[in-house]
Write a structure and sequence with these properties.
By secondary structure, the protein is an all-alpha fold. The protein has one domain: Up-down Bundle (Four Helix Bundle (Hemerythrin (Met), subunit A)). 75% of the residues lie in helices and 0% in strands. It has 4 helices and no strands. Helix 1 runs antiparallel to helix 2, helix 1 packs antiparallel against helix 4 and helix 3 packs antiparallel against helix 4. The longest helix is centred in the last third of the chain and has 39 residues. The N and C termini lie far apart (78 Å).
């Protein structure tokens, strides 16, 4: 006799902001933490088999808005502090915006497998982006601030 499990196993692992995600610039770290919280809410909604489409759509919209605001703010800060790798960093942001767009389309189209894939791509991009591109910028920013204080 087969028994149906009543325990729901998440399709995707939880998205958590951890101390490993620090870039050591207060505003960037606060923004990143907020984006990870939004990503986790989207993950929970994507994993929801009952498909609360309205909830999912709203959560993806909030994530998209927060991500867009963060990226634009970061780009302004890079210009303000004369970041020499600005163009490269902006190209990394374009890749993230494209991944966000792919998720929005997958949610709109209601493709479950496409939603999970697009979501996982966005999470991987965000983690990788923080750990390389944002840490490079944060180091530049801290060095520039120290230099200005010393002069």
């Amino acid at each position: 006799m087969r028994y149906k499990s009543t325990v729901k196993v998440p399709l995707m692992p939880p998205v958590e902001w951890t101390p490993e995600d620090f870039v050591f610039v207060r505003q960037l770290d606060a923004d990143h933490r907020r984006i990870f919280e939004q990503l986790e809410k989207v993950r929970q909604a994507v994993d929801d088999e009952d498909g609360q489409a309205n909830q999912l759509g709203l959560r993806v919209w909030r994530l998209s808005k927060d991500l867009s605001i963060h990226l634009a703010s970061e780009e302004r800060l890079m210009r303000q502090w004369g970041y020499p790798a600005l163009e490269w960093h902006e190209s990394q942001h374009r890749a993230g915006r494209n991944k966000m767009g792919r998720l929005v389309v997958a949610i709109r189209d209601g493709r479950g497998d496409g939603q999970a894939s697009a979501f996982e791509d966005l999470v991987k991009w965000k983690k990788d982006h923080i750990h390389l591109a944002d840490r490079m910028f944060a180091a530049h920013l801290r060095n520039e601030q120290r230099e200005r204080l010393a002069s």
